[in-house]
Amino acid sequence: MQQPFRILHFSDIHVGALVRHMGWKRWFSKRGIGAINLLRGRASFFDEVESKMAAMVRFKEEQQIDMVINTGDYTALGLEHELSLARELVAPMMYPPQRYLTVPGNHDIYVHEGNSHYRFAAHFCSVLQNDLPEYCRGGHFPLVRLVGEDIAVIALNSAKPNPWPWRSDGHIPTVQLDAFAQMLEDDRLKERLLLIMTHYAPRLANGEPDKKLHGLHNADDFLALCSRIEKGAILFGHIHKTYRVDIAETKIPLYCAGSATMEGYEGAWVYEIYNGTLSAKRLYWDGSSYSFEPLCRL
Ligand SMILES: [Fe+2]
Ligand SMILES: [Fe+2]
Fold it and tell me: For the whole model, what pTM was predicted?
């Protein structure tokens, strides 16, 4: 019997660099406030990121995962050192490179530095190859990966630097949405099951839009395009809570991976695609490994 195609989707691992890696000038920016938050304790929620990523690598190997999707926020402050460490931790899952897909999160391009997007791309260039590069509109996105005869993944970049500390919102540039609309008419994609991935959540777990300063600005425009899709799913992160939500605007479900590493909130998804149908199993952290069974806390 033919096996289902298995996809691991995780997100928001938030590798935190030691603050001493920051130059003094960066204290006078959003990074300074981010660093103070780290010192005040946010970082402690992600203390075990290295051992958890080692466990994720083991899970991937033991569970015969065919493809891996990561929806961004690899880092806390978008520092070179953090990106480098994050890349090192996920590298064992990036083989073959055609079977690893990713987008940056807002934390990966934390503030305007001219080179923020390029820095992310430099670390992840080996997995940013595009099967339909004619739709690419600047940077590497939209990025399409054709998987066998029946599946395609479309990655849209919704992350942008947020210079103001009280903002962590995003948007999908109009040129990317226009390209996405054209893709949906492309015969090479029409009959496939489509997985649409981006960093920001188009809807919260209750089906409502996220707050203006934290959400995806043009979520409605994005979902209007997704409403044309008959089979597939919309995959994202940003919200540190693992959930599935079905909404009236689309025929396909929305899956938030949450954070794979945030203590007490760890989660991820494994999708199985078989005969054109997608089913999903939630992943939990049991203290030493990821499994499909929630840890029973007495
Ligand atoms: Fe995050
Ligand atoms: Fe985020």
Answer: 0.92
